[in-house]
Input
Amino acid sequence: MTEESFQTAPESEDTAPVSVPEADDYTGRIIRTIIAVIAGFFAGLLCFITEGKALESGGSSSALFSILILIAAIIIQKHIFMLLRMKYTLEKKDWFYQGFMTFSFWFVTWTILLSGSALKAA
Output
């Protein structure tokens, strides 16, 4: 056989591989974090308002109701993702992150609001 019978692949220039749309994934994660922050804030605000109304009416505050509000804020996020046409089938670690961010902002918001009202009462 001669050298002419072997065909080699044409030499190609070194080009960058096709990039994965990482910017879209990054933007989606930022939006999911913002949604968790807003949900946590409104859950804390709602807990503060309902506790104030319960105490004004002569009732007692219930920690169970506040935890139910927190759980509802986490579950509602899936429906918000659906409305925004985002990926809502997240992995367990992603839902843990969403829940932790919501819990953090719920706790901080509620604590700050309760501390502020305690300072006014003193």
Remarks:
- Helices lie at 22-56, 63-83, 92-121.
- The chain has a mean pLDDT of 81.
- The chain has one domain: 35-121.
